[in-house]
Amino acid sequence: MILVVGGAGYIGSHTVKELIKSREVIVLDNLSTGYHSLVDSKATFIKGDLGDDLILKRIFSEYPIKAVMHFAANSLVGESVEDPYKYYQNNVSATMTLLKNMLDHNIKNFIFSSTAATYGIPNVSLIDESQPTLPINPYGRSKLMVEHILEDFAKAYGLNYIVLRYFNAAGAHESAEIGESHDPETHLIPIILQHLLGKRDKISVFGTDYDTKDGTCIRDYIHVTDLANAHILALNALLAGNRRAEIYNLGNGQGYSVKEVIDVCEKVTGIKASIEYSDRRAGDPAKLVASALKASEELGWKAERKLEDIIASAWRWHKSQTK
Ligand code: UDP
User: Fold this and answer.
1) Is 116 in contact with 135 (CB distance < 8 Å)?
2) What is the pLDDT of residue 243?
3) What sign does the CA torsion over 25, 31, 33, 36 have?
4) Active-site position among 87, 139, 210, 256
5) Residue located nearest, by CA, to atom 25 of ligand 1
6) Which of 11, 74, 188, 199 to mutate for ligand 1's pocket (most ligand atoms within 8 Å of CB)?
């Protein structure tokens, strides 16, 4: 049985949908940003917090858990700058409680959701895992702190772990049953698609004076199902028994500017967007594009879906939400 903490969130719920095809799954989620309706009905669901010692004790004593996947985090760069306490409390302190309970119950396999934000402002065009980690916002720092904790726990307590550093997760499940929905929504692709559906007046482009080809920020967008598949491969690698303490980037290896993403959304939907250009958003680096060569070589993982596929899948889901 696999415990998925944060399995009612966007990336967690998409992973549960893939994982449930081959494993028994139990989801723990406090529903602070997730939705029970996103959790596959074949999974066992427990509402609770990953920082709640009592709930964790009960789960680890009652269920034969072999590995834990941890998606439960606050993940908004701007919010982390305004409210860092929330980020260090939820992302670091509560994670410590989870890890302690795992070790108390001799559960040693752990998959951790990390982020490209750990790199800060990289000075290479393709970021691989050997690049320095100098995050520029509390969100990235909170994730990096847990990465360091895992490294120490592996040495001291024999924890086996895989850290997956996501670039920009986007898109929706092929069934169009689940997709990306945050409240309030701050992510670029859902914001554009909500606008094209008439749910927002316009799109604001944050910053036009970055050192990029058209002045807007460049990101590497990766389909959520590709991310989910990487978790399954990481789990198989951990359960195969070899000691592991590894970090992998997950991205497409191709960067798109904010303007280019809007262009692709217009092309996929056939609808013209209304755009306003505004100031930079705090904490945003100009360009984040992954080299995912290590994940390909060691886990056998490859991103299958390109930006057009990502946006087409997200568009199918957004349209289904208006019915
Ligand atoms: N962005 C934008 N307008 C929006 C939302 C986002 O211009 O309404 C930009 C944002 O500044 C960043 C990129 O789009 O450069 C991706 O932002 P998102 O919040 O989707 O992901 P992040 O890179 O912060 O994880």
Assistant:
1) no
2) 73
3) positive
4) 139
5) 168
6) 188
> Inter-axis angle of helices 258-269 and 188-196, to 10 degrees?
40
Q: Is 180 exposed, middle or buried (0-12, 13-18, 19+ CB in 10 A)?
A: buried
Give the C-alpha distances (Å, rounded to integers) separating 85 from 81, 90, 98, 143: 10, 8, 19, 14
Q: Is 234 in the pocket of ligand 1 (CB under 6 A)?
A: no
Quick check: is 119 catalytic?
A: no
Give backbone dihedrals phi and psi of 228, rounded to 5 degrees, phi first: -60, -45
Question: Relative to the CA of 187, which ligand 1 atom is closest?
Answer: 20
pLDDT digits over 275-286, tens only?
Answer: 999 999 988 889
Question: Which ipTM was obtained for this model?
Answer: 0.98
Kindly tell me if the per-residue pLDDT of 123 is higher than 90: no
Q: What is the pLDDT of residue 241?
A: 81
152 vs 227: CA distance, rounded Å: 26
Distance (Å) from CA 119 to ligand 1 centroid:
17
Q: Helix, strand or coil for residue 200?
A: coil
> How crowded is residue 19: how many other Cβ atoms within 10 Å of its Cβ?
22
